[in-house]
Design brief:
single chain; about 15% strand; 6 strands; alpha/beta; two-stranded antiparallel sheet
C-alpha cells in the first residue's frame, strides 16, 4: 500500500515540477537549468497490443546460476535498436526475474563495431540505462577452416560461416563446413 510519505513526495513533483532543477543545482549535478518542466500522464499501460519479438531467447543454467540470453541478428546500424534492446532486456528481466545478456550476431565488421557501442538511454549528463550488448562477428569470431574441428563441432563451424558470410575467405569456411557435413552424414548412416 502506498504510504503518505510516498504520496507527498510525488505530489510535490506533480505540483511543483520545477523543483527538479533547483534540487540538482543544490547537488551540483551536471544538468542544465530547465527552462520549463511539464507534467505528463503517468499511466504507462499499453492500450493496443505491441508486438515485440526478440530473435531468440534462451535460459542458460550454470554452476554460478541461471541467466537469460537474448540473441539478435544485426545486418546494419539501426537507430531504433537502442530503445528496442532496452525494452527487451527490461521486459525479460521483470518477467523471468533473471539477469539478461544481449548477444548481437553480425556479418560485417562495421555493423559489429556499431552494435558493440554502449547504448545510452537518457540525457547525455546522466544515462539512466546503458545497454551493453555482447557482439559476435567477423572481428572476434574465429573462422573455422580446420576439417577436424568442423567435424567435431558442426554448430560452431556453421556459426563461423554465418559470421564470416561477407569475408573474402568465406569460400574456405564453406568448403570446410560442407566437407564436415558430408563426413558427419556418412558416419551417422
Amino acid at each position: 500500500m502506498v504510504g503518505s510519505k510516498h504520496e507527498a513526495m510525488h505530489r510535490l513533483f506533480q505540483r511543483h515540477p520545477d523543483v527538479f532543477g533547483r534540487a540538482f543545482d543544490a547537488l551540483n549535478l551536471p544538468f542544465p537549468k530547465p527552462n520549463t518542466v511539464a507534467l505528463l500522464p503517468n499511466d504507462l499501460t499499453e492500450i493496443e497490443p505491441l508486438e515485440r519479438r526478440v530473435d531468440t531467447l534462451l535460459r542458460v543454467d550454470t554452476n554460478e546460476g541461471p541467466f537469460l540470453l537474448l540473441v539478435e541478428a544485426q545486418s546494419r546500424d539501426d537507430k531504433r535498436k537502442p530503445s528496442a534492446s532496452a525494452y527487451y532486456l527490461a521486459h525479460v528481466h521483470a518477467k523471468y526475474d533473471l539477469h539478461p545478456v544481449l548477444l548481437v550476431v553480425c556479418q560485417d565488421a562495421a555493423t559489429a563495431a556499431w552494435a558493440a557501442r554502449p547504448q545510452h538511454i537518457g540525457p547525455r549528463q546522466w544515462a539512466s540505462l546503458v545497454v551493453r550488448p555482447l557482439v559476435l562477428g567477423p572481428h572476434n569470431g574465429r573462422p573455422v577452416t580446420d576439417l577436424q574441428e568442423a567435424v567435431s563441432d558442426i554448430p560452431l563451424a556453421t556459426l563461423s560461416a554465418i559470421t564470416h558470410a561477407n569475408d573474402p575467405g568465406i569460400g574456405d569456411i564453406l568448403k570446410t563446413l560442407a566437407t564436415a557435413l558430408q563426413k558427419s552424414t556418412r558416419t551417422t548412416h
